[in-house]
Amino acid sequence: MQLGLVGLGKMGFNMRERLRAHGHEVIGYDPRPEVTDTPSLEGLAQALTAPRVVWVMVPSGEITRDTIIGLSECLDEGDLVIDGGNSRFTDDAHNAELLASKGVGYIDAGVSGGVWGLENGYGLMVGGAEADVAKAMPIFDALRPEGERADGFVHAGPVGAGHYSKMVHNGIEYGLMQAYAEGYELLEAEDLVQDTHGVLRAWSKGTVVRSWLLDLLVQALAQDPEFSEISGYTEDSGEGRWTVEEAIRHAVPAPVISAALFARFASRQDDSPAMKAVSALRNQFGGHAVKRVTSAETLRAPDPKK
């Protein structure tokens, strides 16, 4: 299948490589000339054979909205746009309406997997019409992990459902990371425990708290045993805030996710070991930049092949 891919950053670049490895033709556009396959959105549209499918993988907010507007001006009736970024679900109805006025379909796709998705596959949560999802299914099947489709892909509902599901996913992620980080700090605080890294590693097989996030925390400690190279300053990228706002709107108690979000706010005032652990985890799974202790320099994303 042929696909246009807008945005070749940390995830988009790896997605292009995974799709090509599965036999799909991917034509990518990115403002950076060293990675792009075509010089412009218009060039991308011209390079694709109708009916076109274009996947947008750029930062949420204004950049995504501007990209959707640009595509609406160069795509034709029968084409399809997939927004795979972390857009707020409230943007999806507007994007879908804009494209529908040109006869272009729209799918919102929540994508999880970070920089490791190239090798492991991506968890996918999509929203949109049945016919549009069916049209893009060969792409989804190539991106998701191997095995049964339902274990890594869901058509969650109409437009907006994919990004809503990913928002809640990321809110849960906040809480899980915070729990591991607080456990790490408590182990570090007790003199009886002489091998914190060893304890966490021993939890990685067989225990009820085993998970990929725990594996990544163990890996981060192996690389920097005292987290001496990074500060605990931890950003939040939006989804945690949106999840808490939705919990308030629906009157759903969400104390763990809320506390994890507020802990990130506190990290900008208090350089605690727990927040160093959260910061290290974000760098491990998503390639998110982290601050060094003694300078504004940031650490690069880990290499999933190592």
Write up what this structure looks like.
With 306 residues, the protein is α/β, with parallel strands linked by helices. Helix content is 48%, strand content 13%. Helix 7 crosses helix 10 and helix 9 packs across helix 12. The radius of gyration is 20 Å and the shape is elongated. 43% of the residues are buried.
Topology:
Elements: E1 2-6, H1 10-21, E2 25-29, H2 41-47, E3 53-56, H3 62-72, E4 80-83, H4 90-100, E5 105-112, H5 117-120, E6 123-127, H6 130-143, E7 153-157, H7 161-189, H8 196-202, H9 212-223, H10 239-250, H11 255-267, H12 273-286, E8 290-291, E9 298-299
Parallel strand pairs: 1-2, 1-3, 3-4, 4-5, 6-7
Antiparallel strand pairs: 5-6, 8-9
Helix pairs in contact: 3-4, 7-10, 7-11, 7-12, 8-9, 9-12
C-alpha end-to-end distance: 31 Å
Give the helix level as a range of percent: 40-55%
Query: Major sheet, described briefly?
Result: 7 strands, mixed
- Average pLDDT for all residues: 94
User: Which residues sit in consecutive blocks of at least 5 with pLDDT less than 50?
Assistant: none
> Strand order across the biggest sheet?
2-1-3-4-5-6-7
Work out the radius of gyration. 20 Å
Proportion in β-strands:
5-15%
Number of strands: 9
Number of helices: 12
Give the topology string: H per helix, E per strand: EHEHEHEHEHEHEHHHHHHEE
Structural class assignment = alpha/beta
What overall geometry do the principal axes of the alpha carbons give? elongated
